[in-house]
From TrEMBL:
Keywords tagged on the record: Membrane, Transmembrane, Transmembrane helix
Annotated protein name in UniProt: Glycosyltransferase 2-like domain-containing protein
InterPro entries from the UniProt entry: Glyco_trans_2-like (IPR001173), Nucleotide-diphossugar_trans (IPR029044)
Annotated TM spans: 248-268, 274-291
Family that this chain belongs to: Belongs to the glycosyltransferase 2 family. WaaE/KdtX subfamily.
Residue intervals of the Glycosyltransferase 2-like domain: 10-167
CDD domains xref list: Glyco_tranf_GTA_type (cd00761)
Claim: Nuclease is one of the keywords in the record: no
Top-rank taxon, per record: Bacteria
Amino acid sequence: MMDNSRISISFVVIGLNEEASLDGCFQSITKAISKLDSVEYEIIYIDSGSSDRSVDIAREVRNCKIFKLTKNRSASAARKVGELNAKYNYILFLDGDMLLDVSFLENIFSENILSDSIVGCIGLRQENTFNYFRNEFEIKTKDFYKNKNMSNVKHIGGAFLVCRDVLIKSGGFQPDQIMWEEQLVLSNIMSLGYNIKCINIPFIIHNNRKTTSYASNLRSYCKRYGTGYYFSHYIFNSYKNGSIKYTILNQSPFFCFLGFFSLFLFISFFKVKYALLFLFIFSLIYIIVFGKKNLAHSVLRLLSLVRYFFTSKNKFEFCWKYENK
């Protein structure tokens, strides 16, 4: 049974050239800690090769250990360093451009949200994008995850609270899973019989300076080691880890598309005319249920899955060092 009366948390913050946001991230952690009656904590900052003042800012933070990735770099590799070096019962993962809501931890632990089966949680995530014309952040959405209160999640981003022992038991982060790494972690945790919940309270504000477009997303799918490659890598990793059932559940739009496309190919062997009619009707139903965007993504992911078999696998060197303050 989890003892929430003895709170101990390792805050794992990752960053690359986040000097504009990092101090605010650390301050939000400090303010959240100050609202807890009794807590043991540490802050672990993992830098992915910043060329700005990010590491210097981290050096000024009390109870902060600093690590640097020295070979290949990825968000998953950085979080893996935090996972391996965290010493307390819970780990709260944050990106350097995120602000933790000051009352989130107080609400979670005072309400005893976490239990033997509920081993982690997220909350409402406000996503801000930077308007370079106005030189300010603008609110893009106040509920990025769109989950109902106390619901099991099908998606987690780079910020979540989790029991350290369960994370390690599940295999934790895979350094070479450069994209979709959080989804693999979620599937592996669920395969052990645990859940991560979404709570209807403010959690983080993400001040995202990076912008993406449909064109950039398409380019990422077309790259040899882009979004499509790592989506396929995620699928096969979850299969190897025995968590494919939960990957199918969490990625239901894609696997629904995959199943019906397989049925289309099967019908094509007998009656091409009927197969085309089936494909047309299915596409309409799919768009109504999941939307045009999901249909486009599913097509690209299916093509990427086929391509994955013929692509040499990306080699990843996972190394880090401790940075003395």
